Amino acid sequence: MAPASGKIRVTLGLKADGPLPEPLRNSLGEVVCGPQGLLNLLETQLGIPGNEASFTTRLIQYLGCVDSAVQPDAFYSKSWDADPFSVARTLLLWRDQWYEAGWQGAFPVGVPARLADLAAIEVIARESVAPGIGQRIQRIIGLLADNPIAIESIALRDSLSDYPWLWQRLIEATGAELLHLPEVTPQADPSTDLGKLQRHLLNPIGQKLELEDDGTLVAIEADAACDTTSLITLLTRQHLSGKPDENLAILAELRGDLLDEAMECGGAPRLGFSALSIWRPVFQVLPLACELLWEPLNPTAMVQFLSHPVGPIPARQREVLARTAAEVPGIGSERWQDAVTECLEREPESERQRFADNIRYWLECPRYSPQEGVEGQVLADRAERVARWLTGAREACEDAALQSLYTIALNQAEEFVLAIERLREQGRNTLSRDNVLRLIEDVRGTGAPVVDREAQVCPDQPRAYPATHAGTFYTPMDRVIWWDCQAADSVRRWPWSRSERAALTANGVMLQGEDEQLSWLGKAWVRPILCATQQCLFVLHGDSDRHHPIWDHISSVTAKLEIAPATAPETMARLGLSYANMEPRSLPPKSRWWQLPPDLALTDRDYESYSSLDDYIHSPYKWLLKYAAKIRPGSLAAVNDGSLLNGNVAHRLYEHYFSEHDNIQAIDVGLVPAWVDAQMPTLLKCEGALLLEPGRQAECEHFIIVLQQSLVSLVEHLQQAGVISVSMEVHGEGIYTGGKLSGSIDLLATTGDGREAVIDIKWGSKNFRRDSMQEGSYLQLATYAQLRLAAGAPSFPMLSYFIVSDSHMLNLAHSFFPNAEVINPTTGENAAQYWARFEHTWRWRKAQFDSGLIEVTVNGTEPTENSEPGEAGLPMPETSDKFNDYQFITGWGENQ
Amino acid sequence: MGGKPVSTAIHFISAGAGSGKTYRLTQKLNDLLSQQAVSPAGVIATTFTKLAAGELQERVRGALIDAGQLVVANEMEQALIGTVNSVCGEILRRFAFEAGIPPDQQVIDEDQGDILFYRAMEQALTGNKSTIRKMNILAQRLQIADTQTKQQLWRQEVKKIVDTARANNQSPDTIRALGKSSADSLLAYFPPAIDRKFDDELLGAVNHALAAIDTEYDKTQDTSKFVSLLTGARAALIHRRLTWPEWISLSKGKVGAKSRDHVAPLIDIATQFASHPQLHKDLRDFTELAFAIAADSLIAYQEMKRQKGLIDFVDQEQRLYQLLDNPTVATTLGEELELLMVDEFQDTSPIQLALFLKLSRLADRVIWVGDIKQSIYGFRGSDPSLMDAVLRRVIEQGNAPEILGDSWRSTPELVAYANNLFVPAFSDTLGAEQVELNPQRAPLPEQPAVETWRLQGGRKDVRARALAGGITSLLDSGRQAIDKHCNQPRPLRYGDIAILCRNHDNLGEIANALADAKLPIRYKRPGLLSTPECCLALACLRRLVDPLDNLASAEIHSLSTCENPEAWISQRLAYIEAPEKPAHSWLEDMQGPLANLKALRSRMPYLTPVEALRTAIDAAGVRESITRWGPTPQRTQHRLNNLAALLNHAQDYLDQCKAQSEPATTAGLILWLRALADAEEDTQASGGNEDAIQLVTHHGAKGLEWPIVVAMDLCTELKPRLWGLTVLPSPSPIDLDDPLANRTLRYWPRFFGNHSTKVEVLDTITESQDGQNALEQEVQESKRLLYVSLTRARDGLILCMDNKRASGPWMDTLQAGWMLPDGDSLILPDGRAIPCRAIELVETNNVTAAPPYQPFWPEFPGLPDTLLSLRKNPSSVAPVESASIGEIITLGDRIEVNGSYDPATLGSALHAVIATTIMGQQATSRILLDYGVHEVISIEAADTCCRRLIEALDDNFSPTAFYTEYPLTYTTPSGQVVTGWIDLLVETEEGLIVIDHKASPRGRSEWEEIALSYSGQLDAYVEGLRTCSSKPVISKWIHFAVSGGLVSVI
Ligand code: SF4
Predict the structure, then answer these.
(1) Is B505 exposed, middle or buried (0-12, 13-18, 19+ CB in 10 A)?
(2) Confidence bin at A2 (pLDDT 50/70/90)
């Protein structure tokens, strides 16, 4: 006699595919699952392969079908013209839903137009699109008729009528014995608040429920979800260790990932909540790589590409390149070339060429107009190269979790290539930037969870049971926490009109009604409450859109149900949580002086520059932090824009100009604008790419005009002054009372008779410069004068500022440039006297530094008597914290 | 289909301030739903905010539950209740195909729309550099620029034109034509252009003045400044780029007395600037170009959105407006729509209003609720006069409005005060019955209803401190508030007080003073990124992204330890002395936040930008540090809320990237946040639940209420909207079928910079009819704003005045000279007396004493040593070292397999064949086909695999039952859960046999090695069987299906 075939007992719940808030029973031959699980089980038993096609694959297949079926009068044709992907996605979902409601793939003539149009597509799609769930069910139902399977019974936690029509047919078709499990009933002691509420929810008594606040029903609220996560962690840990015999379930229909992060942070085992996201770094590489294809270069995308945690250029190279890209936004500048060389020199000789090609491929590629688009082949190449990198990275990495992410990203890259090929077959050879972005979105799907984080258990300890839907509750639980109790279910509203609905029904498409869905939800929502035996805790958050309907329900049937503020000490006490006092720590206050240990000698620097000297005397704290302690911001803080960027580009342009035009007097200023126009595109690409970003064209054009005007004006001033030669970026060294100076002079102008003017070129702040000159404060110019003197200049050079944005020249008490504005310091002192004052001031500061006394001249502090260098010193401004990188470490005001 | 005639069914509810609007709405909806007059699925209701929508939904549901209508209450999920845009979006999504738009349109919000619009404008101007330059030059000369940053603003002006035009449903063609009419209307007020060489004459005069003025002789500040102005002006004149405000400045010739004669000729010429032909031309060019660019940009913007599959709020409204003419849509909606309810209709934009009118035709019942007296959003596009006209027309057609005549909010004294103020003030447009309210609350005779606080001091900050002192005393005075919920008096709390200002700067001033006085405050303000809490959080994120950022290290260390800078700086100086350690790894080898962040860095490849921020905050213990700071519990709460606000901003970044379909990275997030702070859009938490004094603008107070309201800035100047963009009134009477017909926009460039007085042409315009109309509009809007502000108080209203002033332009619009009490009682014009108070307040240094701050933190039990992953997968269990091979049963020859194939697929197929065969199916041929291996292996061969296995089992073990693909679940002693499917479980009299199939094609020489590698998996099954079954496991086998063997593992 042939041996018997052993059968499986199934317990089925509508939402039981997700985590179930109940202890797992040791079992053999038993399965608890949801519809998806049942489907998989049946497919296994029927020998049907389980690897289903991804939605994206099916979408691309279906897209092809619509493409061949579309008629100008089809209801979707206008939308199709606007966006085929989007239309195909919607239509595919619709027809999948029909199949899932029993559709056989065709309609008789005479059905409403939209139905007929979809049926017309289906003539092709039926054969060429991988089956969706509905088709899979239908096939199984067909096979079940003459293929015996091994399911003994199906125990239903939800009644058969709660399932969509086709699922009901499937369940019946298994031929298994159907056991109808009873609905969840109230589990708490009827005399408790919780017990009363449970009964009231099932059988309303018509009047408000008087609660006694016995702690069985508790609601707490905080402004934001992240305010309660650590509280739940603590509660969980205390519950599990304090009451190991009592079950605890945590329901988080949304945002459960926040809870898991807090559990991890609080040392509790993670529950296994996770959030799908399309923003995982591995998935950003392909879109970033594509962003670099467009003209003009997108410098922000470049910085992102280079500072990303993963990417096809080795991290050690990207680090160097990222910093350069942040400081000089663009590609092709000298700085950039140097950075590339620096990267390559660190690599073994034999590898250099390969790495150089690699950098060039990703960053220095040809760029295309975003509107006109790029050839599909170029994109496919990029994607394939990304795919190759991903394959390599996946092989190189040890970590299974990361490998799985790489695999998903790899699939995306491959789907992307396929999609491009398909488009090419349809005759679409070039893709605009928008096309590319959408295509990436289309292949990106719904993203991935945090793959390196899964549910955990603490050895030999009980665990809390997570749930992601109220409807999964079935087993009594001592304590239920309904965290983030906000509306999460949306009822599917069918897009069909009444007549379409009627035609669908008449043709065997039995869509589940909205009312039926709601009536099941109505039952499901009360389950977590009914299952609780000792306590039900609701956690509400102010940052949710809307409370969960069940919460509205509870609050309207109960009187005096208080919502306690989650973070108040009383609440914690009430929940039995132990909180410890901790030492308060006031924010570091602002203090005008820092006293370092006097024995802490600061190392002298070889050279000081104008800016370090300026910090030394005006902002000693800055000098200390920047030069002595070497505290520097990272590369992202260095992304240069605004005046700084404008100033740099202006400098570079002038430098360029005067290197090409050395005969100043022969210059025809009328030609300047055209020259500037011709230079700017390249200059901006190399060093000012931020100005080329979309949306900044007007600003950029304005910038160019300002540069034209200013250069004309500068040349005119030079010509009027009889200047015959100009040098820019003149490096010089000198000495001052404390040691050696070095620096480079923006512009040095020399007349035919050997007189010199030193011009410092500033982007803006005309009034600030004018005022400080007037007050007799011009350290930068004075420093440059020293450099000139040290270099053997015959006389003290004339000093001027040139303000680019205003095309304005400011002469310091001279008329070297006859049409410039002359500023006479009110002090009446000349530059040499000024320098003497400066040196005096420096020595005064030096003495302070030597004794460890550092002045912190920031806003919100008052000068003291130590702040005064005395008669012979320079007047000191009260504060100097403009452009202060260090504002967050130099103390805080009382109200901050 | 023409629809039902407009408005026949429109039921208006006019709901004055505090008249119980929400209550009435809830009641109305509840009645209709309970009586089954409408069903939830047939309801569409729009509200002004998301919050209001949620609240309405909740309240109605509650009322239905109270009424025992559980089923209907549940069905409320089907009602379409939301903001105008969410409702439009929903309907549009439903009818996307009818609208010819992509069905999964991404809706972009206003910020995202702004970014896109500017890109579109750029595209419209691409290849048209000369236009850009021309506009740049015009904007430079007209000084259409930000006074601070000097950034040109013409693009923003163009955008305003487009926004307003769209809100009024105007097409690009219409827009294009408006430039000329605008310029014509403006230049009509100018003196005619004179053909004179103004520039040359002015240059001559400037040169003359420069030569003549001697700054050694005239050392006045004015003269020195003027000389600087002249130097600049000379260069500018030579290059034809003198701005018009500079012309005006020259015309004012502000110099010391000693130089006056030298500048007289200059002033004479400059004063005639209004006749300068170039000015006329500049104004005309700018205006016409602005409208032309607006039209082009609008076209480009629409096209760009189409390309990207995006839709913005206005599109939704316009599309829907058109779509309602589509017969299918009209029919379907007409079938379904039973009730259309529009809340706060006075705040609708013109296009929304038109849309609601059209939608109203399709509904069985229509209810519009609102209060035209509270229409205060004129500055952002709603048009009360249009609304008024529409209302009038509808009422004329026989729809008597329902007026809610009772006040539930304020005390009778305050209601009387408001009645006396506003019935006369609105008498020019509204009847008394539409303004007057009947008080329903109990009187509160012992406390002053209205107070005048006279703030002493010449400077704003001094007066603000005086106010802070006043508030402190008020709180200390034992004043009571009537609790809203239980109607009982209780001591006044911080959160009971609101202070209303006209603008954010003034709020800031007050905020500082209150903070200095240690009064807790809440208000919407920027500066999130410079708060210490967010600085710390962001430093953690920066540190995570950039291991070289040691400024971040310093920030994290400083803010976590709160050490004096001296201490850690010394430590740092010592650290970098030691050459062996890289300067950037400072503090990373000490236990603490930096070490934790370093450890976290390896997880960066997994984390989304927001997750990275959250985990960085967690890893560095930011919340704990913040909690220590205090110095009050309220401040701590605010700090924590700010952290949540930061996370929300981070989420906005992702949303924006999503809307633009662009990649998002953590570095991108940091840059984005920085840009947000630069634009001063990094708003702090507004502190919804904090018990703190609320600071809010008068506009922002709309819809809110407090026991005590302090109204500031009542003397603000009126600012008629004459310059810039104006929407001219609709021609009357309004056509309800096309209410937006013939609307016109006008744009007058603001060419005069900061000059507003002593400029002749400006005076002419102010006094003109246009000027007067604008003034009248402003007066009306000012009155409505006062109505909103002064009706927010439940128990007490405090009017703050600078000591010096008795009245001012804004409050004067009410023409109620009596409104400021100056004693204990105020006699209202109707003769009634209400209790009042008038006090003078001077600056004090009173500081509210706070109890010492005691932070607390959860006491986490010690960390468990190990955490295991919950799930244990049998197939990943490592082989058992002690395992060995037992019996080997040969099943026959190797089965023939051909061609290339994926071994895993073949394995699965053979699994399936064996399983189905055992269950009694004859499925082999189907299975091989399904798996695509029918050419790899023949049906006979596959069947042989199965048959010979079963025969061998029969021969060797006398099985009583086969369990194929059999589920097993158990929990290990340590708590891990093992779930697996046993390929084949054979039951015999003696016990159970476990068999695992392998399809490896490799020969028998390798069997043992392969079999041993699965010993762990087999053991896991055995352990489970021991737990779950009473039968012993007698043996475990690996079945080599292809090469034909059964290998026993012991
Ligand atoms: S807030 Fe206080 S006074 Fe008001 S109802 Fe609640 S308990 Fe009563």
Answers:
(1) exposed
(2) low
Token pair of B56 as six digits: 């309405």
Residue A55: band (very low, low, confident or very high) from pLDDT cuts 50, 70, 90? confident
What CATH architecture applies to the domain B10-105+310-404?
3-Layer(aba) Sandwich (3.40)
Residue A682 sits in a domain whose CATH number is 3.90.320
Backbone angles phi, psi at B204, to 5 degrees: -55, -45
Q: pLDDT category, B743, cuts 50, 70, 90?
A: confident
CB atoms within 10 A of CB B476: 11
Contact between B285 and B225 under an 8 Å Cβ cutoff? The reply is: no
Q: Whose CA is nearest to atom 3 of ligand 1?
A: B483
| Binding-face residues of A in 835-894 toward B, CB within 8 A | 856, 885-892, 894
Q: List, for residues B104-136, the tens digit of each pLDDT value.
A: 888 898 888 998 999 899 888 887 888 998 999
Q: Which CATH class is domain B528-679?
A: mainly alpha
Categorize the per-residue pLDDT at B737 as very low, low, confident or very high, splitting at 50, 70 and 90. Answer: confident
Question: For residues A384 and A413, what is the distance between their CA atoms, to the nearest angstrom?
Answer: 7
Number of domains in chain A: 5
In a domain, A502, yes or no: no
Q: How many CB atoms lie within 10 A of CB B896?
A: 12
Verify whether ligand 1 is closer than 6 Å to residue B490 (CB atom).
yes
CATH for A564: 3.40.50.300
Domain membership of residue A881 (yes or no) is no
pLDDT score recorded for residue B863? 66
- B798 alpha carbon – ligand 1 mean position (Å): 24
pLDDT band for B6, please (50, 70, 90 cuts).
very low
Give the number of the atom of ligand 1 that is nearest the alpha carbon of residue B484: 4
Does residue A612 form part of some domain?
no
Does ligand 1 have an atom closer than 6 angstroms to the CB of B488?
A: yes
- Contact check, Cβ <8 Å, A493/B231: no
Chain A residues near residue B647 by CB distance under 8 angstroms: 224, 226
> Is B19 known to sit in a ligand binding site?
yes
What was the ipTM of the complex prediction?
0.94
Phi, psi of B730 (to 5 degrees): -65, 150
Work out the mean pLDDT of chain B and round it to a whole number.
90
Chain-centre distance of CA B195, in angstroms? 54
Q: Is the peptide bond before B809 cis (omega within 30 degrees of 0)?
A: no
Q: What pLDDT band is residue B821 in, cutting at 50, 70 and 90?
A: very high
CATH topology for the B445-524+692-841 domain: Rossmann fold (3.40.50)
Crossing angle of helices A349-363 and A299-306, rounded to 10°: 140
Top CATH class, B871-1049: alpha beta
Q: What's residue B791's pLDDT?
A: 96
Q: Check CB contact under 8 Å for B118 and A595.
A: no
- For residues A69 and A115, state if they share a domain: yes
